[in-house]
Amino acid sequence: MGKERHKIIPASYLVLIKDNKVLLLRRFNTGYEDGKYSMIAGHVDKGENFTQCIIREAEEEAGIKLESGDLKFVHAMCRDSGAGENNERMDMFFVAENFDGEIKNKEPQKCDDLSWFDINNLPENTIPYIKQAINCINNKVYYSEHGYN
């Protein structure tokens, strides 16, 4: 019998930047990193690709509509979340050049703040791997790893 293959959990993240500010949301009542800032994001569903995922999540979480042509890949992160047996993640970060709709918190049961922050002065309570991703994106680093020994 051969080695068991990885079971990496894929997720997509939306990086919205305007006037040197990045849109972040504060997690609330989710059971994971509550009270800390992250981005519009979500797990990729079976049969869905990374861009389809972030298009869906942007509408579900913030009420904005994206087209795949609006998205530009900016960073990939291989991450060990340390949370349970299936803790390895592959995170893809996309910048949206354009979108339709007005940004609003469509999931107040999971998010208690949706605000713009100076990209060079993020809140202290930003999730560490999100800070790392933003720093990498600012420096045009397209791949990083987080949480491995």
Mean pLDDT: 94
Order of helices and strands: EEEEEHEEEHE
Instruction: Estimate percent helicity.
Output: 10-25%
- Global Rg: 15 Å
CATH topology: the name is: Nucleoside Triphosphate Pyrophosphohydrolase
What CATH architecture label applies? Alpha-Beta Complex
Distance between the termini: 28 Å
The count of helical stretches stands at 2
Please give the order of strands in the largest beta sheet.
Answer: 5-1-7-6-9
SS elements, strand count: 9
Number of domains: 1
CATH superfamily: Nucleoside Triphosphate Pyrophosphohydrolase
Sheet of most strands = 5 strands, mixed
* Poorly predicted residue ranges: none
**Could you tell me the strand content as a percent range?**
35-45%
CATH class membership: Alpha Beta
Q: Give the helix/strand class.
A: alpha+beta
Q: What overall form do the CA principal axes indicate?
A: globular
